[in-house]
Amino acid sequence: MKNVGIIAPSGYIDEFEKLYEAQKLLSGFGISVKIFKSCSEKFRYMAGSDTSRLEDLHSAFLDPTIDTIICARGGYGALRLLDKIDYNIIKNNPKKFIGSSDITALLVSIYKKTGLVTYHAKMALNGLSKMGEREFLKYKNAIEQNFYTMPKFHCSERVWKQGGLYPGDGSILWGGNLATIVSLFGAPPESYIPNEDIVLFLEDINEPDYKIDRMLTQILRNKPLKERIKAVIFGEFISKGENGAQTSIGSDGFLNEILKEFTDALNVPYAFDMSITHGENNTVVPIGMKIL
Question: Looking at the structure, do residues 104 and 181 belong to the same domain, yes or no?
Fold first, then answer.
């Protein structure tokens, strides 16, 4: 990570001081930073028109001086670009590509169309802008080394008897923001579902329990995706329970029941990693990394 491009494929930026803090952090480590024009544009709730945001995405991959692309923020807008992207540009000019939340749509689509490992990780505005030296070096190393520590898996008695405590060799890490994953389901499965078996990781924020239930049920009804899932890692679900209170894994409410029903229906092992989150401690997860 020596030359970083910051683009805004989704929501517009209204806190420019955070963008400059991110630039300051990177520059402090001797990393050059190029901020693309979409970071200063606004169209409705997005960082410029589809044409402008797409042009920045292509330009960042085409720029021979850039080795790493970090998205500014999530929000909404990445889904609108998927059918307009020239994936040959990305395939022929591979770079580290980093984002989360709404950027999940780009992470999984780029991996599917090009085979390029992408990174579900902190972005510029609410990530890099708040990092200290130690956290940034850990973040940088994980991206450069394709590093993620697998959590401890659990399973039902039925899975245990079948000898399926761990996902098999050759599975890859795949997933991200649950609502964004489900938003892809209107497209042909071959446009986003990987060819390999997967360890599915999921997180979300501000979704009530019944919506999480609905979205997980949609995954169960998506047969091509369901058949690929060999294990599940649940990140943090910062959600609203039935009484309107904030809940997450381990709290009262229906969420634990919903997640357990999901893995029981899949008949696969499951794990928890609260550092996959919309919160402060969002870790790096390489999408496409093989489980050894």
Answer: no
Q: Number of folded domains in the chain? A: 2
* Residue 150 maps to a domain: no
- State which residues form the domain around 33: 3-145
Q: Tell me how many degrees the CA angle 201-207-209 measures, rounded to the nearest 5.
A: 90
**Token pair of 60 as six digits:** 């960042």
Same domain, 179 and 123: no
82 found inside a domain: yes
Whether residues 141 and 207 fall in one domain: no
- What pLDDT tens digit does each residue of the chain (292 aa) get? 999 999 999 999 999 999 999 999 999 999 999 999 999 999 999 999 999 999 999 999 999 999 999 999 999 999 999 999 999 999 999 999 999 999 999 999 999 999 999 999 999 999 999 999 999 999 999 999 999 999 988 876 566 545 555 666 689 999 999 999 999 999 999 999 999 999 999 999 999 899 999 999 999 999 999 999 999 999 999 865 455 445 555 445 689 999 999 999 999 999 999 999 998 889 999 999 998 7
> Domain containing 96 — which CATH number?
3.40.50.10740
Tokens standing for 171?
Answer: 């599975």
Answer whether residue 216 is part of any domain: yes
Where does a domain end: 145, 177, 211?
145
Query: What distance in Å separates the CA atoms of residue 259 and residue 270, rounded to the nearest whole number?
Result: 9
Nearest one of 133, 80, 131, 128 to 103, comparing CA atoms: 80
CA distance linking residue 119 with residue 53, whole number of Å:
19
Between CA 87 and CA 105 the distance in angstroms is: 14
Chain position carrying tokens 């904030």: 246
Q: What angle do CA 208, 183, 140 make, to 5 degrees?
A: 90
173 and 135 inside one domain: no
Place of tokens 């079948």: 162
Whether pTM > 0.85 for this model: the answer is yes
